[in-house]
Amino acid sequence: MADYDSGMRKSRDIESGGDVKVPETAHQISQDSWLQIAFILTTGINSAYVLGYSGTVMVPLGWVGGTVGLVFAAALSLYANALLAKLHELGGKRHIRYRDLAGHIYGKNAYALTWALQYINLFMINTGYIILAGQALKAMYVLFRDDHVMKLPYFIVIAGFVCALFAFGVPHLSALRIWLGFSNFFSIIYIVIAFVLALNDGKKALPRDYNIPGSTATKVFSCIGGFANLFFSFNTGMLPEIQATVKQPVVGNMVKALVFQFTIGLVPMFAITLMGYWAYGNETSAYLLNNVSGPVWVKAVANISAFLQSVIALHIFASPMYEYLDTKFGPTKGTAFSLNHISFRVLVRGGYLTVNTLVSALLPFLGDFMSLTGAFSTFPLTFILANHMYLMAKKHKLSIPKKLWHWLNIIFFSVMSVAAGVSAVRLILADSKTYNIFADL
């Protein structure tokens, strides 16, 4: 099949080493070490979202389901992402965008569908980051002045504005560099603080209730939603775009980065998720710092760290949208920090994040968005499509047992995607009846 990429400004290709070619893009390609990519992946997995997994994963699944599910989902996620990484140079050409790879294998219709799925996925992830950043600001405000004058939607607007300022100053994914160090530093701060405070609370607390709350029907839907949240927590939905920035050999370096992500990178995430649930049981909230008790200044440091880390992490998941807009419509002359480039970013990225911020303020139900994203985007992109693309690309080289294994993955995650989608919509409708739009949660 031919490649389909309406995002290219020119049809010619540029060499990327050897006989492997890469489509032209306004962003940088093949500039980053595998370790920098590993930190990008680790930043995503240990973002401020980890402060919600005790409540959104463990509470609906319980000790056995949640703990076994974390290990199971991590193993399947590493496997699926490794499959995608190995397809990056399929057909002698680097596929630097998810839609490029789908278009190469299936054709124009799959290219468009993959593009739509991916941007829905990333839009909802970005929406979640703005909600998280707003929650962190509100939690810090409440520590010092719990007068209900400033409400969550106000803090979400402030968070969206700061995210836009950061987007204006960081032109592309490779330019994050030192910001990745700050991001991981901020992650360590709020994870360590939340872990220690939850540990202290758990030691002093009365026996906790670890039963899954709700009626039988509610438990079923919550369990399905928690399962979707599990896979959401491990996956980016933009692996080819991240792999595009890594130096040659791109497959080997990407696999190294993935192994780092799913070994060392998982330790903080597992630790805070299990500790939060142990300390508070089924009373754990979707933002763990709302549960912990301790010195006000310590909790303030944790909240401001979560806010700043969310601002940086959002840029990672917004970068595919930025890359398309910059390549298709951006100015072609001048440096990344020339007036015309900065003006373009202010106009275009500012508009995109304004829409994100509006949706975040309208429906600030973080756990529901995680379930919906897992159902409609993470499952299809990371598991269903990855396994089927690998089958299509390697069909003459795979044994029958291996083909059956991939089909089993495709069928299983297709069923889970439908079930999780129904569950997520039900949860959002239920929350919408409980809370008004622009709710102050």
Automatic annotation (TrEMBL):
Alphabetically ordered keywords of this record: Amino-acid transport, Membrane, Transmembrane, Transmembrane helix, Transport
One Pfam family this sequence matches: Aa_trans
Domain Amino acid transporter transmembrane: start-end pairs: 31-425
Subcellular location: Membrane
Chain ranges passing through the membrane: 34-55, 61-84, 105-132, 152-171, 178-199, 219-237, 258-280, 300-325, 346-366, 372-392, 404-429
CC per GO annotation: membrane
Coiled coil feature spans: none
Ranges of compositional bias, category Basic and acidic residues: 1-15
Region annotation (Disordered) ranges: 1-23
GO biological process, one term: amino acid transport
Name under which the protein is recorded: Amino acid transporter transmembrane domain-containing protein
Origin species: Papaver nudicaule (Iceland poppy)
Lineage: Eukaryota, Viridiplantae, Streptophyta, Embryophyta, Tracheophyta
